């Protein structure tokens, strides 16, 4: 049974999100990427493996180095899913702000 990991599992972890962010700036070799974290190189390698299984990172070998590059198209499903809720949450936040302003106004009217 091959349970392919998905983009939502990938972005659920803060370390993996940070790796995605770093690789979105430029491809990096595994050692230079690992140097940016307070976790071991093998732990970073595991995160890269996870991202690779999700299709978010491509790892290529150049000589003795392994280079990691982001595959941004694989993030599209997550963006599309999030986008559908963006308007809903913006409306709810706006409504909440209006409610708070109304309460503040009522409170000020009661004090006067």
- List segments where confidence is low: pLDDT < 50 over at least 5 consecutive residues: none
Count of alpha/pi helices: 5
Which structural class matches the secondary elements? alpha+beta
Radius of gyration: 22 Å
Number of domains: 2
As laid out across the biggest beta sheet, the strand order is 1-3-2
CATH class of the largest domain: Mainly Alpha
Reported by name, the CATH topology of the largest domain is Arc Repressor Mutant, subunit A
Largest sheet: 3 strands, antiparallel
Overview of this structure, please?
The chain has 112 residues and is α+β, with helices and mostly antiparallel strands. It has a three-stranded antiparallel sheet. The mean pLDDT is 89. 63% of the residues lie in helices and 12% in strands. It starts with 6 loop residues before the first helix and ends with a helix. The longest helix has 36 residues. It folds into two domains: 66 residues, Arc Repressor Mutant, subunit A; 37 residues.
Based on the model shown, name its key terms.
three-stranded antiparallel sheet, 5 helices, 112 residues, 63% helix, Arc Repressor Mutant, subunit A, single chain, alpha+beta
What's a quick, concise take on this entry?
By secondary structure, this protein is α+β, with helices and mostly antiparallel strands. It has helices spanning 7-11, 14-25, 30-34, 41-53, 76-111; strands spanning 28-29, 57-62, 65-70.
């Amino acid at each position: 049974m091959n349970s392919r990991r998905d983009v939502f599992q990938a972005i659920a972890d803060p370390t993996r999100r940070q790796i995605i962010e770093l690789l979105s700036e430029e491809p990096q070799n595994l050692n230079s990427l690992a140097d940016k974290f307070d976790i071991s190189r093998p732990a970073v390698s595991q995160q890269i493996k996870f991202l690779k299984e999700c299709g978010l990172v491509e790892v290529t070998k150049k000589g003795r180095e392994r280079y990691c590059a982001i595959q941004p198209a694989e993030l599209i499903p997550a963006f599309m899913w999030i986008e559908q809720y963006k308007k809903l949450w913006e409306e709810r936040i706006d409504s909440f702000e209006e409610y708070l302003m109304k309460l503040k106004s009522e409170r000020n009217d009661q004090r006067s």
